[in-house]
C-alpha cells in the first residue's frame, strides 16, 4: 500500500523571538508528522511553543530554520495555496462581538471569496451542525463562552478546509461546554475526514481526543505516539499516596525514596506519586514504612502510568508544575511579532 502524504509535517523547526542577548528561544528543533484524517494533539505546558508552531504551520509566522508542509505543500513556498487548504482557530477569540453569529460566519465566507448566497447556505449548515441556530441572530458578544468557541470553530470551517488547526480550543470553558466541543471535534475527523491539529495544556483533553499526540516541552517534541503507546512505553505503575496531613509531605517523600523499587517521586497537593516497577509487589513495603514513620494516609492506590507520568519521565518535572511556572505568552503575542519585523 502506498504511504499517504502526511497532512502536516514539521521538520526541525527553530525559532527565537527577539535578537541577540534578549532572544527568547521558542522552538528548538521541533519535528512531528500527522497522517490524514485524525485528531492530532500537541500537548505541552504554557510556554512550550505550541502556538508558535501553529502560527508557522498556518503561514502566519516564519521559522528561523526548518521546514513545514501541509498536504505536501511547503508553507513558506506556497502560503496562498496552504491558506486555502486550512482552517485556523486561534487561541484568542476571532469573532466580532458586535455582529450576530450569522453575520460573523457570512463575513468569514466573503473574506474567503465565497459568493454571498453560498456563504449564507454554508453558514446555515454550520449553525445547524453546531446547534447554534437559535441564537444565530443575536450579537455574538452576548453568547455563552461555549457558544462563542463553537462559533470560532464554525468560522474556521466556512471555506471547507481539509486541515483544521485549533489552538487551545477549550481553554476557559466549563466542563459541560468542553465535553460538547470535544464531541464536535471528534466528529470532524471521524465523519468528515478532516485532519485536526489541536494544541492543549490539558492532559485529559489530549488523552480523550487525540488519536496520536506529540508532547512538547521547551520548544521540542519529547515524546510522540498514541496515548496508550506513550503510557505503556513507560512500563511499571504509579503508587499514589494521599497524606492525611499535607505537612508530612517531605518526611513521606524521604521514606518512600529509601524503599527499593521506588523510582521518581512527585509531590503535589498533599499526595505523593511514586513510579515503581511493580505496584502490587512494592505496595506492602510502602505502607509498612509509612506506618512505621507515623505518617497517616487518607488514600492509597496503584495506577497505570498517566500522560502526566509520561511527561514527567521525559521532561523531568510534573506537567502541572511546568504549566504553572511556564513562561506563558504575552497577551498580544501576534502583535508583538508584527511589531518586531
Ligand atoms: P505555548 O503556546 O505552548 O504556550 P508559545 O508558542 O506561545 O507557547 O510561546 C513559546 C515561547 O515563546 C514562550 O517563552 C513565550 O513567552 C515566547 N513568545 C511567544 N510569542 C512571543 C512574542 N511574540 N514575542 C516574544 N516572545 C514570545
Ligand atoms: Mg499557546
Structure description:
This protein is 38% helix and 26% strand. By secondary structure, it is α/β, with parallel strands linked by helices. It has 2 domains: 8-230, Rossmann fold (3-Layer(aba) Sandwich), CATH 3.40.50; 236-304, Alpha-Beta Plaits. A hairpin with a 2-residue loop joins strand 12 (262-268) and strand 13. Helix 3 runs parallel beside helix 5 (145-157). The longest helix is centred in the middle third of the chain and has 16 residues, at 175-190. It starts with 7 loop residues before the first strand and ends with a helix. It binds adenosine-5'-diphosphate and magnesium ion. Adenosine-5'-diphosphate is lined by residues 17, 24, 26, 44, 46-52, 327-330, 333, 336-337. The site of adenosine-5'-diphosphate has 18 residues, from strand 2, helix 1 and helix 13.
